[in-house]
Specification:
The structure holds two protein chains of two kinds.
Chain A lengths: L31 H12 L3 E5 L6 E2 L15 E5 L2 E10 L12 E8 L6 E5 L12 E6 L12 E6 L7 H4 L4
Antiparallel strand pairs in A: 1-2, 1-3, 4-5, 4-7, 5-6, 7-8
Chain B lengths: L5 E8 L10 H16 L8 E6 L10 H5 L10 E4 L5 H14 L5 E9 L5 H4 L13 H17 L4 H14 L14 H5 L3 E4 L1 E2 L8 E10 H9 L5 E10 L13 H13 L5 H4 L2 E3 L7 H8 L8 H6 L16 H4 L3 H17 L12 E8 L4 E8 L4
Parallel strand pairs in B: 2-3, 2-4, 9-10
Antiparallel strand pairs in B: 1-7, 1-8, 4-7, 5-6, 8-11, 10-11
Classes of the chains: A mainly beta, B alpha/beta.
Chain lengths: 173, 388
Amino acid sequence: MPELILPARLQGIEQVRSFRAPARLDYQFTAGLATTRFLRAVAEKRLVGQRCPKCQKVYVPPRGACPTDGVPTEEEVELAHSGTVTTFCVVNVQFYGQVMELPYVSALILLDGSDIPIMHLIQEVPYDQVHMGMRVEAVWVPDDELGPTLESIKYFRPNGEPDADWETYKDNV
Amino acid sequence: MGKERVAVVGIGQTKHQATYDGSIATLVREAAERALDDARMGWSDIDAVVIGKAPDFFEGVMMPELYLADALGATGKPMFRVHTAGSVGGSTAIVAQDLIAAGIHERVLTVAFEKQSESEAMWALSLPIPFQPPMHAGAGGYFAPHVRAYIRRSGAPDHIGILVALKDRLNALKNPYAHLHEHGITFESVKDSIMLWDPIRYSETCPSSDGACAMVLTNEKGGDEAAAQGRPPAWVLGTAFRSEPTMFAGRDQVNPRGGQDCARDVYAQAGITDPRRDIDVAEIYVPFSWFEPMWLENLHFAAEGEGWKLVEAGVTQMDGDLPVNCSGGVLSSNPIGASGMLRFAEAAMQVRGQCGEHQIDGVRKALGHAYGGGSQFFAMWVVGTEKP
């Protein structure tokens, strides 16, 4: 950067190089029909996906249309609260606004009956025992804390079933 | 269809660093002035400016192109802004070249930047939204599970990620513009660094940088003039971009279809039938070390599941037959919005013989590659010494 040459009357004054100006932005999110139905179901402790009429894939959370076939996904599918860890990482970095205790496991979980994994936490198991193919189940917040958000699921935990076979989830890894 | 040939005749970049002691305007102007000097041009020679950066929310400066128009001499000239997340530096260069290829302009200045010291990129990438849990794991948290998937699918040994990180950081020692100059780095120091997002270690992760990159592109006449004055241009032999949705059932995030198709397209334009043989050097967007073997496969330099073997055999080292990221790459400098353009620019610098200590001898064709978002935006170009 070129040298700043100040007029004589300003010389000797400490220059302001930077200052912190926190920015905040609140906005209204219009969920749309499919996401609204999904979030309302979550508030009732249910997981609802939608099936594409062409490729038969079940999307969760549903977005109202199949990204591959470009057609509306109208058929609703009630999903199990259990699934398979397809892949994951162990997070060991803290940053702004984070409330999690380190390290924690962030995993992609393929809910039974769905065809696309969701990302969620794995707990109630030491982080170094989490592995691909592990079978897990949702742990919900108490009923009076349920709301239209995936935070209504506190985390997933091992459900004790034997590991899923690689062939059953390899197309989602 | 009467497409104009396009030449790269000027390249500039700033010294990438944790905190650039100046404004964003000063940062982009410094890179642009260097590119103009390299092209032996002044501001009045430029017909239009094309600028790119990562999302505005990073620095919290909305539509910064408006504020930067004066600093970039764009007042009264056409100015374009390009948005494609982390791949934006590459896409921006492609838009600039398209304006010349289409015969609309003769000389275009293209600039890309990021000032991470003024931003909260990790936080900006992890906004709370109502249908996702509050995981706040940043880009590393997004990509690490896919790295694990690559390791599982390919059977690659753990030391591959370490080898890539070590190579790129050692290459960076030969590049005065690189952010990280880790003179004491060793295999052991990378291996012993903390797992930030297991399986990604701290030393296998890109830094947060302030930096900018700029290029002057011209039509064939401008390229010929530069060559006649003893400043050989890099000729653009092909450009391509592709994107794919972030989420669809069965999406392959280890070897995304968008990247495969983009590479086939750019190779076909550049007359490349065997990329491993025909490309002399590649600058590939590798923000986490494991993405080198992953992209070697996506870019058809290796068969699926075999990319790590090229790394292990030293093929991508500076003395290998396919040197990758001689500049030190994104792993050594990551001014996000500029990182893609730096890949494109470094490819052109290799063709023009401008790389100094990290120059590879006799480069005739080079690949510049960028990706962004959740591995959903891809931008590539092939540049060469010979006119297309």
